[in-house]
Amino acid sequence: MRKFNSGSEFKAGLGKEEQTVLFYASWCPFCRAFCPKFEKKFGASEKHSTVAIDEDSDPLWDEYGIKAVPTVLVFKGKKTTKRYDAVPGVGLRIEEIE
Q1: Contact in structure between 33 and 86 (CB atoms under 8 Å)
Q2: Given this model, what pLDDT does residue 5 score?
Q3: 66 SS3 class
Q4: What is the dihedral sign for C-alpha 33, 57, 85, 74?
Q5: Distance (Å, whole) CA 63 – CA 29
Q6: Where residue 90 falls among pLDDT bands split at 50, 70, 90?
Q7: Could you give the CA distance from residue 89 to residue 45 in angstroms, rounded to a whole number?
Q8: Which residue intervals of the chain are DSSP H helices?
Q9: Given pLDDT bands bounded at 50, 70 and 90, which one contains residue 72?
């Protein structure tokens, strides 16, 4: 699993392969519970990425409309093909991610 520290680094890494990308924040209790499950489910695959970008430090969250974390987006090339948004105050269940 790859991790990116900036939106520009992440966007440069988007290619033709499908990528499942996790947007999360280290301060979020729902993310702390979700991230190990995400890594267990997708960690062995080279086509999956973890994107760790704080909403205050990079405009990528605004660009992709991230309103609550964790949020998972699936990309094919530079296009978003699937989206799994967290429910504010509840989070996201790993069982929802295909």
Answers
A1: no
A2: 67
A3: coil
A4: negative
A5: 24
A6: very high
A7: 30
A8: 7-13, 29-42, 60-63
A9: very high
